[in-house]
Amino acid sequence: MAQLDGLPALRDVIETHDLRAKKSLGQNFLLDLNLTAKIARQAGDLTGSDILEVGPGPGGLTRGLLAEGARRVLAIEKDSRCLPALAEISAAYPGQLEVINADALQIDALAHLTPPIRVVANLPYNVGTELLVRWLTPPEWPPYWTSLTLMFQKEVAQRIIAQPGSKTYGRLAILSQWRCDANIVMSLPPEAFTPPPKIHSAVVHLTALPEARFPAKAETLSRVVAAGFNQRRKMLRSSLKGVAPDIEDRLLSAGLKPTDRAEQIPLEGFCALARAIDAP
Ligand code: SAM
After folding, report:
1. Which is the closest atom of ligand 1 to the Cα of 121?
2. Relative to the CA of 30, which ligand 1 atom is closest?
3. Which among 38, 51, 94, 193 has most CB atoms closer than 10 A?
């Protein structure tokens, strides 16, 4: 059956192009175009933006983005079996969809995009966190993107928005919340996907702030947070021993107790500690 965009239904696309899902590529497809349009809408006004989409697969979310008025979509897909299906979408939206057959971890997407840029993706599970960390740690801030709207396993989504004191609070929460507003905007049950994964999923929307919430050097903050959460049960004076020889003094001058544990320290405290470590 033809859809509103004149293209075939996604189930037919999958059958025609024999796109049996490969687990090794994290392939769990969204076949409901109402749902993909709803996800696209979570990204905000797309009309004036270039969109970077990682892993378009058979193109459900890609079609959602284009139907919702994206100025241009750059889609990076590793699986060459998806290219003919994506070429049909390009033909239906002339000049608006560019597909690159590549590994998203290997490609410099920025070279193909014009600001303002939004990133929207139903990410493959195996590379989702790695891509998020790269987007959150660019060489300069503000980054090239204005927002990230990303589907993750629910457990990863919870780590992104976690608050101090919770079991999921850690490096991902600090990295995400230091320079972004981060919210879970949708939750999806396994049945929303074909094939259904074992776990629930959630869409996280991150908006880049013009500058960090609290001053700190990105490299120092990252080192402190990595060391602190690497041994999250230990007191800071021992988990951060390798970060600075006089760590107890630095903790005290940042207003932290050397006996505190990383999971109790709010973002502001980690930033104060990074500044104290960089102080002469
Ligand atoms: N966007 C489609 C949807 O929502 O139905 C497919 C999402 S599926 C969870 C993830 C997609 O990412 C698959 O199409 C897979 O082939 C692709 N993929 C996996 N690893 C990739 C990588 N390293 N670079 C680019 N695409 C990748």
Report:
1. 1
2. 5
3. 51
Distance 132 CA to ligand 1 centre (A): 14
Provide mean pLDDT across the span 73-81.
Answer: 98
**Nearest alpha carbon, ligand 1 atom 23:** 103
- Token readout for 228 is 């602190």
Tokens 């994206």 correspond to 70
Ligand 1 binding pocket mutation candidate from 122, 152, 194, 200 (most atoms within 8 A of CB) = 122
User: What are the two backbone dihedrals, phi and then psi, of residue 276, each rounded to the nearest 5 degrees?
Assistant: -65, -35
Distance 58 CA to ligand 1 centre (A): 9
Q: What is the 3-state secondary structure (H, E, C) of the chain?
A: CECCCCCECHHHHHHHCCCCCCHHHCCCEECCHHHHHHHHHHCCCCCCCEEEEECCCCCHHHHHHHHCCCCEEEEEECCHHHHHHHHHHHHHCCCCEEEEECCCCCCCHHHHCCCCEEEEEECCCCCHHHHHHHHHCCCCCCCCEEEEEEEEEHHHHHHHHCCCCCCCCCHHHHHHHHHEEEEEEEEECHHHEECCCCCCEEEEEEEECCCCCCCCCHHHHHHHHHHHHHCCCCEHHHHCCCCCCCHHHHHHHCCCCCCCEHHHCCHHHHHHHHHHHHCC
Q: Is the CB of 56 under 6 A from ligand 1?
A: yes
CA-nearest residue, atom 18 of ligand 1:
55
**Is the pLDDT score of 2 beyond 80?**
no
pLDDT in tens, 232-252: 999 999 999 999 999 999 999
Q: What is the mean pLDDT of the chain?
A: 96
pTM for this predicted structure: 0.96
Condensed to tens digits (0 to 9), the pLDDT of residues 21-41 reads 999 999 999 999 999 999 999
